[in-house]
Request: fold
Amino acid sequence: MKNEINPDKKMRKFRILVVDDEENMLLMLKTFFTEKEYTCFTARNGAEALEVLGKEEVDIVITGMKMPEMDGLELLRHIKEKYQNISAVIMTGFSEEYTTTEALNLGADGYITKPFRNKELLLILKRIQQLNQYE
Reply:
């Protein structure tokens, strides 16, 4: 089964899945993470994300909130039920406090509000890597 704890995770690249319905956001983040030497997968919605998670070993999911078919909160619920060892960060263009609070209550490891600077997201990832001893 994919996404079980891998004792060799320190020996491989950190693997990120970015989920968003905005094609430009996916392209920008995939390019950025690849340049920073991360392995990056993308999905346009929650259903695609679950397909990737079923096939690939992923360390963290960075997901948008408002998406067709399955929103970020529903995806987060699925991740925390089936893949407890995967970290999750919510990206939102909406700063409603209840959404952020609900995501954190569901187990999100962090959130970032759009628009953001890539450096901000990188700091969140580094914190998660350190907490989970990926480095």
User: Anything to note?
Assistant: Residues 9-131 form a domain with the Rossmann fold fold (CATH 3.40.50.2300). The chain has a mean pLDDT of 86. Helices lie at 23-35, 46-55, 72-82, 97-105, 118-131. Strands lie at 15-19, 39-43, 60-64, 87-92, 110-113.
